[in-house]
Fold this sequence. Notes:
Blueprint: E1 4-9, H1 14-29, E2 33-36, H2 38-44, H3 54-57, E3 61-66, H4 68-78, E4 84-89, H5 106-112, E5 116-121, E6 124-130, E7 133-140, E8 143-148, E9 155-161, E10 164-171, E11 173-177, H6 185-188, E12 200-206, E13 216-219, E14 224-228, E15 236-240, E16 243-248, E17 253-258, E18 263-268, H7 273-281
Amino acid sequence: MFKRIGLFARKGDQKVRQALDALHACLARRGIEIVLDPGCAELVGAPAAAAKPIGDASPDLVIVVGGDGTMLSAARACFERDLRLLGINLGRLGFLTDLTPADIPDGINAILDGRYTEQRRMMLHCQVLRGGVSIAASHAFNDVVVQKWNTARLIALATAIDGKLLHKQRSDGLIVTTPTGSTAYAVSGGGPILDPNLDAIGLVPICPHTLTQRPIVVAGDSALEIAVSTREAEHVQLTCDGENVCLLQHDDRVRIGKHAQTVRLIHPADHDHYATLRAKLHWGTDPC
């Protein structure tokens, strides 16, 4: 079912190299064409000429080796090409990466034989307007965060949904999360865990001064706008999936909404999201 497969990894330790070698051997035995992202090519010692940015290679499937952070990078690189992603977990939690190196080759062969499920997940798009002119734009699979920077003081923000004011707040910032990102920074801030199949966006204040400011979940098609009221320069920063986008100024407006394109994740046939939550978050499994 997959005749051309791309391998994606960040620079890593020996474990990443070993997993890549095992994957390469497994795919080669099945006669599958293998495309190496530049990061993978460097790790396995392949010539630079043999590498190609994974989003440009148009593989049938991209296998991502690393943790959730590596999967976030792969998702941003691939989603606009509608490429399918499968994760090999070498990180700590692994909410997005289902298989382990021990699952090579059996788990990989099962998926290559067609025993898998596919899930589409939301991607956010954000744009920064300054004086009505767009100065920056980015995408986020987990979250868009407007947060204080270079200061110990609270920042002032005003948030509107579909043109209607939701609230004004003084806080350390605001997390705008997809259902996928609800188990990341947002849950640390007290936000709800959202089922990944929901068409919804979560807004989670970070340490708000007014304690009645609570997380809220809105429809996935909502148009969000965050206006910066803080007057001091370089005290507010915008990040997408933990990557810096730009510093924000007074009266900048960050517009956030659901991207038209989704992220396509491949899971093993027996994938159980709630089992993953129980395992990763150490929820009790003993009967009541």
